[in-house]
Design goal:
- The protein is mainly β.
- 8% of the residues lie in helices and 37% in strands.
- It has two helices and nine strands.
- Strands 3-2-1-4-7 form a five-stranded antiparallel β-sheet. Strands 5-6 form a two-stranded antiparallel ribbon. It has a two-stranded antiparallel sheet with strand order 8-9.
- The chain starts with 6 loop residues before the first helix and ends in a 14-residue tail after the last strand.
C-alpha cells in the first residue's frame, strides 16, 4: 500500500468519464497497444491517448465504450502519439489491463468523487 495522502491531494486528480470514439492499432508501440480518441463532452473535448489493452479488447469492442481517465496530467509523447489523458485500468490475474468504466451509461465528463 502507498503512503497516505490527504483528501486535498486526491481532489487534485481530475478523473472524468469519456467515451471512446476512435481506436486503431499502434504498431510503433513497444508492447501491443491501441491509439484512442476519447470524447469528454463539449467542455473538455476529444482527447488522445494510447493504451496497452489488446489482450481483452478489440477495436470494435472499444468504440462507444465509456472509460475513466485522468484529464489533468500534462500531455506525454509516446512514440508518435501525444497522449493527452491517462485512461485508467487495473490488472487481471495475468497482469493484463482491464479498463475502468462506470457500471451504467452516464453523462460524459462526469467527475469521479
Amino acid at each position: 500500500m502507498s503512503d497516505p495522502i490527504s483528501y486535498d491531494d486526491f481532489a487534485k486528480v481530475d478523473i472524468r468519464v469519456g467515451r471512446i470514439i476512435e481506436a486503431e492499432p499502434f504498431p510503433e508501440a513497444r508492447k501491443p497497444a491501441f491509439k484512442l480518441r476519447v470524447d469528454f463532452g463539449p467542455d473538455i473535448g476529444v482527447k488522445r491517448s494510447s493504451a496497452q489493452i489488446t489482450k481483452h479488447y478489440t477495436i470494435d469492442q472499444l468504440i462507444g465504450h465509456q472509460v475513466l481517465a485522468v484529464v489533468n496530467f500534462p500531455p506525454r509523447q509516446i512514440g508518435p502519439v501525444r497522449s493527452e489523458v491517462l485512461v485508467l485500468g487495473v490488472p487481471d490475474a495475468e497482469g493484463e489491463v482491464v479498463l475502468l468504466s462506470p457500471g451504467h451509461d452516464v453523462p460524459l465528463a462526469g467527475r469521479m468523487f
